[in-house]
């Protein structure tokens, strides 16, 4: 089971560190990271493995949400099924 | 495989284009709650709903978190209450409405639909009592929706019921006049009603359905419109293709959410209703899709053709995306719930006559239309009869949800708020149809009902 974490917003120091820190806290393994900074805008898509997660998936979503609020970034944490079902037959 | 473009497209659809799951609706059969003692029956109804749907809201919220997709409403549809009322002659069916309201409060759902009667060929025990109790039931409850099926392609139109419903719609509006006539917004009159509809106010759980199941209604006019803005010079068949592809994506999401809800609740998955359901929010309008296709304003000449194409393309895209499609499936055109329709109605471009034509080619019918408060009940009945005739002859579902704005006339507005929006009072014809309506009887089923 995998999930996708997307982070979009103004670039600051330590975004990747903080997001992956939360992943580690929940025993969620980071599989793939795509990241780019265009002018001041930071955009990152992270594919993570949630099969060994040590709490409810919704707790991870909440933690990412509050990190997003704290840093002024838009962070979405969604199960990969939604992308697979919408974009492949 | 996941790619960046797809991920960002999904997020944009949800965040900027108002993509959401409009409703998860649990259909519950109440046939095993029938009892000759109405109080016992009400208790059984309450207990069954609370047992089956107690976790519905919680599961809905869990899925919202899991997939990051908003689920706007959690609803319940039940067996038409007239069938339960039939066992308790002489009792006031409003007791059932109160029991349903109690169940809605306990479960925390937004609506329960099914305070309904199916009288397309005639009234059986319980039907007339239930219909006559609708104004009181919708007055004393907040989250209960009512519907009455007065016609079908197979049986024709029950004109006695049409006449009665004209009076009931008016009376319901009068009883709730102090609350912007909200009662009438929760009452819909059908021809060819479907048994697995997840949308309100017309949802009920048909007798042919299983004991309990989950239906999903998707929404996404904003997404379709945004997709079209990218192709300003495309031909109409290219536009149809774009709509199909977009509808596919939207419906896949509905299928996913429905399957997940069914798994978590341990209840079979019923259908995905592939509807484009607008809300008054900016960017969530079906009228704006039609305008994007090239109409200066929704309601002008060409609207029916654009809507026919839209409705068909939505179905073609959606059918492939879901294992079981059902419900109403198509584009909805509720006037007060659609920012573009409201503007067009205020401008006088969108009229009742044009809406009637539009209902011949799209899902459902004359929906959320505010009419002058002094409208005669026979005129309401005549509008219902016209709309039912379109449904009967075209073998499709049509419906009428009119709101007589008590104490208001043309040029004024009713404000419902929330998903129901606001609607300008629309003009109606002055000449009477009372003699036609008062004849009573039944319009025979059309020739093509004899298919066997």
Q: Rough shape of chain B?
A: globular
The top-level CATH class of the largest domain in chain B is: Alpha Beta
Query: What is the helix/strand order of chain A?
Result: EHEEHEH
Rounded to the nearest angstrom, the distance between the terminal CA atoms of chain B is 49 Å
**What fraction, in percent, of the residue positions of chain A are helical?**
25-40%
SS field, number of helical segments of chain B? 16
**Rg over C-alpha atoms of chain A, rounded to the nearest angstrom:** 13 Å
**Percentage of helical residues of chain B?**
40-55%
Biggest interface, chains and residues, is: A-B, 23 and 22 residues
Strand content of chain B: 15-25%
Under the CATH scheme, which architecture of the largest domain in chain B would be assigned?
A: Alpha-Beta Barrel
Mean pLDDT over all positions of chain B: 94
Low-confidence stretches of chain B: none
Strand content of chain A: 35-45%
Largest beta sheet of chain A: what is the strand line-up? 2-3-1-4
Query: Please, what is the average pLDDT of chain A?
Result: 92
Description:
The complex is a heterodimer of chains A (89) and B (452). By secondary structure, chain A is an alpha+beta fold. In chain A, 37% of the residues lie in helices and 38% in strands. Chain A has three helices and four strands, in the order E-H-E-E-H-E-H. Chain A has a four-stranded antiparallel sheet, sandwiched between helices. The longest helix of chain A has 15 residues. In chain A, 28% of the residues are buried. By secondary structure, chain B is an alpha/beta fold. Chain B folds into two domains: 172 residues, Alpha-Beta Barrel (Anaerobic Ribonucleotide-triphosphate Reductase Large Chain); 207 residues, Anaerobic Ribonucleotide-triphosphate Reductase Large Chain. Chain B has 16 helices and 13 strands. In chain B, helix 6 runs parallel beside helix 7 and helix 10 packs across helix 12. The model of chain B has no long low-confidence stretch (mean pLDDT 94). Chains A and B meet through helix 2, strand 4 and helix 3 of A and helix 1, helix 3 and helix 10 of B.
């Amino acid at each position: 089971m995998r999930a996708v974490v997307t982070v979009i917003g103004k670039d600051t120091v330590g975004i990747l560190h903080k997001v992956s820190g939360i992943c580690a806290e929940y025993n969620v393994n980071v599989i793939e990271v795509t990241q780019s900074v265009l002018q001041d805008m930071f955009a990152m898509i992270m594919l993570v493995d949630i099969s060994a997660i040590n709490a409810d998936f919704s707790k991870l979503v909440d933690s990412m949400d509050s990190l997003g609020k704290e840093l002024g970034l838009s962070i979405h944490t969604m199960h990969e099924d939604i992308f697979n079902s919408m974009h492949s037959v | 495989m996941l790619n960046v473009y797809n991920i960002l497209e999904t997020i944009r659809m949800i965040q900027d284009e108002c993509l959401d799951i409009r409703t998860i609706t649990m259909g519950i059969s109440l046939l095993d709650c029938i009892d000759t003692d109405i109080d016992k029956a009400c208790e059984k109804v309450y207990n069954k709903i609370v047992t089956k749907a107690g976790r519905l809201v919680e599961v809905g919220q869990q899925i919202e978190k899991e997939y990051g997709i908003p689920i706007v409403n959690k609803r319940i549809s039940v067996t038409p209450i007239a069938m339960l009322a039939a066992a308790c002659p002489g009792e006031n069916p409003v007791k059932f409405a109160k029991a349903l309201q109690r169940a809605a409060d306990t479960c925390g759902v937004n609506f329960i639909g099914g305070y309904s009667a199916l009288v397309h060929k005639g009234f059986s025990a319980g039907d007339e009592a239930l219909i006559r109790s609708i104004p009181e039931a919708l007055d004393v409850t907040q989250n209960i929706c009512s519907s009455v099926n007065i016609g079908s392609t197979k049986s024709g139109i029950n004109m006695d019921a049409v006449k009665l419903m004209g009076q009931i719609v008016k009376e319901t509006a009068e009883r709730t006049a102090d609350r912007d006539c909200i009662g009438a917004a929760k009452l819909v009159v059908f021809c060819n009603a479907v048994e697995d509809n997840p949308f309100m106010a017309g949802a009920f759980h048909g007798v042919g359905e299983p004991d309990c199941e989950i239906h999903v209604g998707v929404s996404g006019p904003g997404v379709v419109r945004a997709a079209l803005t990218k192709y300003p010079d495309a031909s109409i068949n290219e536009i149809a293709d774009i709509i199909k592809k977009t509808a596919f994506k939207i419906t896949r999401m509905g299928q996913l959410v429905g399957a997940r809800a069914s798994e978590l609740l341990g209840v079979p998955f019923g259908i995905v209703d592939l509807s484009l359901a607008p809300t008054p929010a900016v960017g969530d309008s079906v009228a704006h899709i039609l305008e994007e296709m090239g109409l200066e304003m929704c309601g002008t000449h060409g609207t029916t053709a654009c809507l026919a194409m839209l409705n068909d393309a939505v179905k073609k895209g959606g059918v492939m995306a879901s294992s079981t499609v059902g419900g109403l499936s198509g584009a909805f055109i509720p006037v007060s719930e659609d920012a573009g329709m409201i503007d067009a109605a205020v401008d006088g471009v969108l009229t009742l006559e044009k809406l009637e034509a539009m209902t011949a080619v799209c899902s459902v019918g004359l929906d959320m239309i505010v009419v002058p408060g002094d409208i005669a009940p026979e005129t309401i009945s005549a509008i219902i009869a016209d709309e039912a005739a379109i449904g009967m002859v075209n073998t499709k579902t049509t419906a009428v949800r009119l709101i007589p704005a008590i104490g208001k006339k043309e040029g004024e507005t009713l404000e419902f708020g929330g998903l129901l929006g606001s609607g300008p009072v629309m003009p109606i014809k002055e000449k009477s149809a009372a003699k036609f309506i008062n004849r009573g009887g039944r319009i025979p089923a059309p020739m093509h009902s004899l298919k066997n």
